[in-house]
Amino acid sequence: MPRSSFYLIPPFLVLVVWWLTTWEHVWFVTIGIIFVLSMFFFIRARNREHKQQEAADTKRLLGKIRHDLMNHVQVLMGYHMMKQEDKGNEYLQRLAEHAAKEREIAELQDEELAVFLLTLSHHYPQWEWEVQKLPTYIEPRAKTNEPIAKWLAVCIRVLAKMGEEKYDWQKVVLQLSGDDQTNFFSFQVYNAENEIIPLHVPAGEWTNLKDQFKQLQMEIVSQQRLTLRTGLSR
Questions:
Q1: Are both 45 and 153 inside the same structural domain?
Q2: Residues 29 and 145 reside in one and the same domain
Q3: Which of 135, 156, 165, 217 is packed most tightly, with the most Cβ within 10 A?
Q4: Is residue 150 within 8 Å of residue 136, measured between CB atoms?
Q5: What pLDDT digit, counting tens, does each position of 109-136 carry?
Q6: Where are the alpha helices (DSSP H) in 163-202?
Q7: Computed from CA positions of residues 139, 223, 200, 171, in that sequence, does the dihedral angle turn out positive or negative?
Q8: Which residues are listed as membrane-spanning (predicted)?
Q9: CB-side exposure of 211: number of CA atoms within 13 Å?
């Protein structure tokens, strides 16, 4: 139980005592004062806990970024020491292309979605992630209240459940695309040889999964893609 919850105990105890003893106004005033003070300290403590959790998450994320950066530096230093400049240049080119893709995602108008996509490898480190934003994906002109990041997190849980004890994939590709009326977010999984793994799901199991998340428009396309339709009008 969060430590902030203990601030709710005093008003509860006073309320019980007041109820069991008397209905005098002095108790009413007392419980009112204690309730206000307790709620003040409770909210302050919850805000402090929330900030501490955010700081811890940010610290872990920065640690992962630093770790990845050091890995890249070591690879480049290795190519340099072995005088393999061609491979070093190819590696730098791949890093530049990856950075360009991340910049494109970071420029999405939906800040929550952008942060979610950029931190996929942090929140789901068991897989290698690649996010592809196709030219057909056009953002809504106005911000919407659709919790796309939350829906995508649900899709990832569904994907993980589908793969329990069935698949051994190494990489997940999340592709953003669309048409005139709908946005599509499609997941494809790959093995260590970079081959697409078909998503064979028994009909009954797939029905159960869809029943659990009826608010989402999910479908499996050609047994290769788990696709989320957001139905956002352009």
A1: no
A2: no
A3: 156
A4: no
A5: 888 888 899 988 888 888 889 998 888 8
A6: none
A7: negative
A8: 5-20, 26-43
A9: 6
Q: Could you tell me if 48 and 130 lie in one domain?
A: no
CB atoms within 10 A of CB 131: 19
Residue with tokens 């589908």: 162
Beta bridge pairs of residue 175: 132, 186
Could you list the residue range(s) of the whole structural domain that residue 67 is in? 1-83
Its pTM surpasses 0.70: no
Examine the domain organization and report whether 75 and 181 are in the same domain: no
For the ranges 8-22, 120-134, 175-189, which has the lowest average pLDDT? 8-22
Examine residue 101 and state whether it is found in any structural domain, yes or no. no
* Residue 109, phi then psi, degrees to nearest 5: -70, -30
Q: Report d(CA 106, CA 120) in Å as an integer.
A: 13
If you ran DSSP here, which 8-state letter would residue 132 be given?
Answer: E
Instruction: Give the residue from 60, 162, 168 showing the smallest Cα distance to 119.
Output: 60
Closest to 31 in 3D by CA, of 17, 14, 16: 14
Which residue's entry shows tokens 């955010």?
54
Whether 102 is covered by a domain: the verdict is: no
CA dist 131 and 177 (Å) reads 11
Instruction: State phi, psi for 226 to the nearest 5 degrees.
Output: -95, 115
